Write the structure tokens for this entry.
Amino acid sequence: MNGWNGKILEIDLTTQTHKEYPLDMEMAKQFIGGRGLGARLLWDLVGPEVDPLSPENVLIFTNGPLTATGYQTSNRFSVTTKSPLTGTVLDANSGGFWGMQFKKTGYDVLIVRGKSPKPVWIEIKDSVVAINDASELWGMRVYAITEKLGQNNNKRNVLCIGPAGENLSRIAAIMNDRERAAARGGPGAVMGSKNLKAIVVEGSTRPEVDDKERYKFLMYETKKLLAASPLTSQALPEFGTVVLMNIMNNIGALATRNHQQTQFEGAEAISGEELTEKYLVKNASCWACPIGCTRISKTEKVEGEGPEFETTWAFGAQCGVDDLPAIIEVNSLCNDLGLDTISAGSTIACAMELSEKGYLDSDLRFGRADMLAGCVEDMAYRRDLGAELADGSLRLATKYGHPELSMSTKGLEFPAYDPRGLQGQGLLYATSNRGGCHMRGNMIGLEVLGLPKLIDRFQVQGKSAFVILHQNSNAAIDSLVVCKFTNMGVADEYFARVLGAVTGIPYATGELIKVGERVWNLERLYNNREGFTPKDDSLPPRLLTEAPTDGPSKGWVSHLEPMLKEYYRTRGWDENGVPTPKKLADLGLNKLVSGG
Amino acid sequence: MVDPRIYDMFREIGRDLYTANMISSHGGNLSIRLGDRVIIKRRGAMLGNLKQHDLIETRLDKNDSGVALASTELLVHRTVYLNTPALAICHCHPRTAVAFSLSRDEIVPIDNEASYLLKKIPVITEEFASGTPQMANKVAEALTNYKIIMLRGHGSFAIGQTLDDAFFWSSTLEEACQIMLFTKQINEPFIEYRGMSDSYSKF
């Protein structure tokens, strides 16, 4: 069958052995690949008794049926594990080139389990697998090790951790192709806990597609659609994701100073327009991507990829900083150290508020751009206050007696969008299976950008249906795996047809969305099994009770409670947020739960 | 009472459907899914002149008292919502499209806009073409893979995330059919201007 290689590679670092075995194709049809397949495998492999940083946790790297076919943005991969930051199921995905190359080694899945007695790195050249000594590589930063291990975009690709992962920072990222990141939820710490420094892939398998003529037609149509969308053909290529800075600020939904305000007076200075005019060197693209949203930026001190919108916001508005060169430099530093920029910036912002209010004895204050780089270095090496910042804002704020000052859900720090001005986004954060995340069904398309049509961002009644549709759709896209930005020009009906053309299995659009629903419900079941309850589907009190006193969102708080009740009912869950037997049967998950 | 913002949306789209000649005075219907509930036009109400009390809220999964007041097509709308990702449905009677549906099993537009947006529109047949379970199932099944379909001799059903969305597909279909009709009337050789258009009928 085309689309899948049909093989899983499993490496046990404790015994330094590896084996390969067939992919269960029934499972693959039900969960496709990427995030979906990862969640399904994690369900079997890691139970509630497992500490995320213990050898019993696993790292599951997955590609999908579209990966490496050449379809637009078919470069991505997922890494699934139990999160050391949140304790939830975690999927983080990343672009670049590594995912494409991994698929070309002939494997759909790489499972890494156990813990090596000493630092190692793994090399996979087609079916030849080597576990190599990494004693001399341990301690190296990301840029240096990527170069040392022979990164070559189209031929040999390096995935690694930096010092943050080695030092088990719970907000450590897994980096690939130098500056791409599977960042959220701390997968880098899981890799560090296994004494695994890097995974290098080289492959020669060329993925085949089932219906070449149909596939060619769909590629052609996708090209037209992406060219016709002003977002994918103009806004993202010209300004990158930072194009959102002024847009969010203008509508009063740009979280500022640890969500104390919803507009930032310095937004213009850190906007996409400013970045493009003063610091942009050129655009860059992931493999097979015609959008090219990646920025190559340059200051007097650094030149490299980024920063993305969320990074610019996290170290910018969220920290009260309007110094764009400082943000570009701290972004580069995070990439080199292997840190999640959203969590790093937002944790510093939390520390700034704790300090300003006298709960924490430090010099951190909003606007202190000069302290950002030092904080990030200290986080990665767990030095001084950095040792506490390294574990994210919730653990930090809890230690100092004010957990309410962590702007997070389930311990994962929010991105830039303040849910008081975006009711659907608030519900999304509260219900996201990996914690407060915007990549699990982003409502910005509907509530701000008008994709596919603008809806009232303050509307509460009926919002759950939109959130659920987008959560399901995104789970499906994450399982293919393609970049969500394609969804700004290409509707789900095209993805379903491309999947059919590649695999030879006809997937109706509705069936593809149902795969997404299945994945979402399985992730929910996983979290429920871990002990999560409806009280974890929450937002910080600030967002529920403190309305902005000025700006376009003046007077609004998040009306989470009625939306959440409606959400559970609409999902087919009971009042405790548990999928009903009827829903599980409808999704084919009932046997999984009953152990059948 | 339905939220005034929701009423405004129904009133505006309903009026536009009427003024665009896509429904008769009392024909067609609109609905949206609000979580586990449906808001749909009242039976016999005029879409082009909707009042706030013309919108009926009822359960999605089973009947309640709202069913006594709702459009005769409620069953179709519910079945579509339960079987597709739709959050809004627009059902209307676009005249040119209905005319074309009487002689073909699919409508493949030739104009640029509809080629780009719709590719092709399947035409399905149901003897009892109004409000029956058979029709509801056929329409829902077709809409799992297409955002707009034609029921032969009856009208179109379009789905979207919003009413605006579903109306867009409906008006695009009618425009495409009018252009096809004009082309037939002009009766001159067609000059193909699209790439890979042979594949549209396989979409």
Observations:
- Chain B has a mean pLDDT of 94.
- Strands of chain B lie at 29-34, 37-41, 55-59, 88-92, 106-107, 121-124, 148-151, 155-160.
- The domain at 4-187+196-202 of chain B is CATH 3.40.225.10 (L-fuculose-1-phosphate Aldolase).
